[in-house]
Amino acid sequence: MSSEPLVVWIDQELCTGDGLCVQYARPVFEMDLDGLAYVKDAGDELLVEPGAKTVVPVDLVKDVIASAKECPGKCIHVERASDFVEVAGPLA
C-alpha cells in the first residue's frame, strides 16, 4: 500500500451493525444510537451525513483496509484522497 492519503466512508444503507469496523479501528469508526456504523473526523466528531468521508490516519491504514475487507455488509469504502478511486471495499 502506498503512503498516499486515503479517505473512508460508510454506506449506512448496507451496514449490518456488526461493529467489526469499530473493533478494527475505534479512532475512525463508531456505532451510533441507530445501531449503524459511522466514521469520525480527526476531532472525534461522529459524521452522520450520508456519504461523509474522513481522512484515514496513517497509523490506522492497515486496520481500516482490513475492516473494509472483513465487513459483513460490504459497506466500507476506502478511497485515495487524490482521485477517490476505491482501494478497499466492495468497488475495489
Please provide a written account of the structure.
- The protein has 92 residues and is an alpha+beta fold.
- The protein has one domain: Alpha-Beta Plaits (2-Layer Sandwich), CATH 3.30.70.20.
- Helix content is 16%, strand content 26%.
- It has 2 helices and 7 strands.
- The protein has helices at residues 20-24, 61-70, and strands at 6-10, 29-31, 37-40, 46-47, 54-55, 76-80, 86-88.
- The strands form 2 sheets. The protein has a 4-stranded antiparallel beta sheet with strand order 5-1-6-7. It has a 3-stranded antiparallel beta sheet with strand order 2-3-4, with no helix packed on it.
- A hairpin with a 5-residue loop joins strand 2 and strand 3.
- It is globular.
- The model has no long low-confidence stretch (mean pLDDT 96).
Topology:
Layout: E1 6-10, H1 20-24, E2 29-31, E3 37-40, E4 46-47, E5 54-55, H2 61-70, E6 76-80, E7 86-88
Antiparallel strand pairs: 1-5, 1-6, 2-3, 3-4, 6-7
InterPro entries: ET_Ferredoxin
Cofactor: [4Fe-4S] cluster
Please summarize what this structure is.
The protein has helices at residues 20-24, 61-70; strands at residues 6-10, 29-31, 37-40, 46-47, 54-55, 76-80, 86-88. With 92 residues, it is an alpha+beta fold. It has one domain (6-88): Alpha-Beta Plaits, CATH 3.30.70.
* Total helical elements: 2
Biggest sheet strand order reads 5-1-6-7
Largest sheet: 4 strands, antiparallel
Rg over alpha carbons:
12 Å
Known CATH architecture? 2-Layer Sandwich
Percent of residues in beta strands: 25-35%
Instruction: Compute the number of strand runs.
Output: 7
pLDDT under 50 segments (min length 5)? none
Structural class: alpha+beta
Average per-residue pLDDT, rounded, comes to 96
Write the CATH fold name.
Alpha-Beta Plaits
CATH class category label = Alpha Beta
* Apparent shape: globular
Roughly how many Å apart are the termini?
13 Å
Provide the number of structural domains: 1
Cofactor: [4Fe-4S] cluster
Pfam family, one: Fer4_15
